[in-house]
Design brief:
The chain is mainly alpha-helical and 470 residues long. The protein has 3 domains: 29-206 and 460-465, no CATH class; 225-301, PGBD-like superfamily/PGBD (Muramoyl-pentapeptide Carboxypeptidase, domain 1, Orthogonal Bundle); 326-408, no CATH class. Helix content is 46%, strand content 7%. The strands form 6 sheets. A 3-stranded mixed sheet has the order 6-7-8, with no helix packed on it. A two-stranded antiparallel ribbon has the order 1-2. β6 (340-342) and β7 (350-352) form a beta hairpin. The chain is extended and about 105 Å long. The protein starts with a helix and ends in a 5-residue tail after the last strand.
């Protein structure tokens, strides 16, 4: 009896195992079939987009119309962000990164965020068992996530607006970073956060402005700073109720550190005068420590305007380079000085020495007729020729004293990046603001506020907007 029971149990256990394997195989087949259906749906949408030369998915315009089809064709149209159970965890991490786009001066809503979240929410609805609908939603979600990665990545890499479409006299070269390689690495390594960090400009100007944008947004959201009422200049020793507003204004931006016993002071003392000077230096004003009409006008520019100014100047940062060569012109009284640095460009712009040294002491220095004066030309030349044994500082000085024109060509090209900025971080990490003397900021501001024109993502990842802004 015991033996028969043992045999029965063994047979029963084997049967259960077989049934379990069959059930697992059916589940695996069902999962494979589901992914195949999503794959087929993606293929159909890609083929339709190629035929129509436009790509709309879930009522969203796909921006990477040249990249997205190639991405899916290269992987046999297999979904990148979807598995049998639904969106991969990596998809959720991409959505989290998009949510933080405003920390990079970008608008999260541009990257299909609302549609992506709506589809994800619908897929989590357990009452939805319509296979056809689920397949369509998963295909849409996969395409939207891919386009969001490429579109967001292109903005991190190159900025949201191409400067050449705003100012036709600018030249911007395409980045060598390939977004297709980036997205493939992210999918394989699962290190999507690392890939996005690699797309951001690596220099201090970018990270510094990003950090200051957070500071100024916090100030703006807290109500900004007080407006200083008009009146006579506030100079050392002056007593006025307006001094309290001045102290508060400078304290909010960190120019003035209030001492515990200074809460009720309405007189300009040495500490407050020093704070005014600090503010003036950060804004390109004459640092005389007097809060006069011009200084107060700059102090009364709102926190919201300063936030926008920082955001605008982010668009002027990037990693565009072009070769550089060095050349010298004779004559100490020449308007160009005794040395100039030539680099290839279509505007005939170059860097040069100047006999008018006093101009560097001015707070506003837009005196040149298009080229760039160098304050320390000898030091610049020394750095450029540091690997040329023949050209030491004493040899350069001797050559500059002669009347003979000499041309020195660099052995290795040096990258040159010319920027027009009205907000930046200086070498000490201080926030600097300047007046927009060439009135370039409004055009860029308007472009950033406009609904984005149809863009094209080129094969190397540079975003080009088709519409020009006058």
């Amino acid at each position: 009896m015991t033996t028969r029971m043992s045999v029965f149990l063994n047979i029963f256990g084997t049967a259960l195992m077989i049934f379990g394997l069959i059930a697992y195989a059916k589940l695996a087949q069902a999962q494979t079939d589901f992914i195949s259906l999503v794959q087929h749906q993606i293929e159909q949408q890609i083929r339709t987009a190629k035929k129509n030369q436009t790509f709309v998915c879930h009522s969203e315009l796909i921006c990477g119309i040249e990249l997205v089809p190639g991405f899916y064709t290269g992987r046999g149209y297999k979904p990148a962000w979807i598995e049998a159970e639904g969106p991969r965890p990596l998809a959720g991490r991409l959505v989290a990164l998009i949510h933080k786009a405003d920390a990079e001066g970008l608008n999260p809503g541009v990257y299909h965020l609302a549609s992506i979240k709506a589809i994800m929410s619908a897929l989590r609805d357990e009452t939805r068992d319509d296979m056809q609908s689920k397949v369509a939603m998963c295909a849409d979600l996969d395409i939207l996530l891919t386009d969001a990665y490429l579109f967001f990545g292109s903005h991190l890499l190159s900025g949201r607006v191409n400067p050449e479409t705003i100012h036709t006299d600018w030249v911007v070269r395409a980045h060598r970073t390939d977004l297709m390689d980036s997205i493939e690495r992210a999918l394989v390594s699962q290190q999507i956060e690392k890939e996005f960090e690699l797309l951001k400009p690596p220099h201090f100007a970018y990270t510094g402005l990003r950090d200051q944008l957070r500071v100024y947004r916090k100030i703006r959201d807290a109500g900004g700073w007080p407006q200083i009422p008009p009146g006579p200049s506030l100079r050392l020793g002056v007593q006025s109720k307006r001094v309290m507003a001045l102290r508060s204004r400078l304290e909010i931006t960190g120019d003035f550190i209030r001492e515990p016993d200074q809460n009720s002071r309405d007189r300009v003392d040495a500490d407050l005068m020093a704070a005014v000077q600090k503010f003036q230096r950060r804004h390109g004003l004459k640092p005389d420590g007097i809060a006069g009409k011009q200084t107060i006008a700059v102090m009364n520019i709102s926190a919201s305007e300063r936030v926008r100014q920082i955001e605008i100047n982010w668009q002027n940062l990037g990693r565009h380079y072009f070769p550089f060569k060095l050349r010298q012109d004779p004559g100490p009284k020449n308007a160009l000085g005794r040395i100039k640095f030539m680099f290839p460009n279509k505007f005939a712009v170059y860097i040069h020495d100047t006999p008018h040294r006093a101009l560097f002491n001015e707070t506003i220095r837009n005196f040149s007729s298009g080229c760039i004066r160098a304050e320390e030309p000898i030091e610049l030349a020394h750095q450029l020729l540091i690997h040329h044994p023949r050209w030491r500082p004493e040899q350069m000085q001797a050559a500059m004293q002669s009347r003979e024109r000499q041309v020195i060509r660099l052995k290795q090209a040096v990258p040159v990046h010319l920027l027009y900025l009205t907000a930046w971080i200086d070498a000490q990490g201080r926030m600097q603001f300047r007046r927009d003397i060439y009135n370039r900021d409004p055009a860029l501001d308007n472009a950033l506020h406009e609904k984005a024109p149809r863009p094209t993502l080129l094969s190397k990842g540079l975003l080009i907007n088709q519409k020009r802004v006058k």
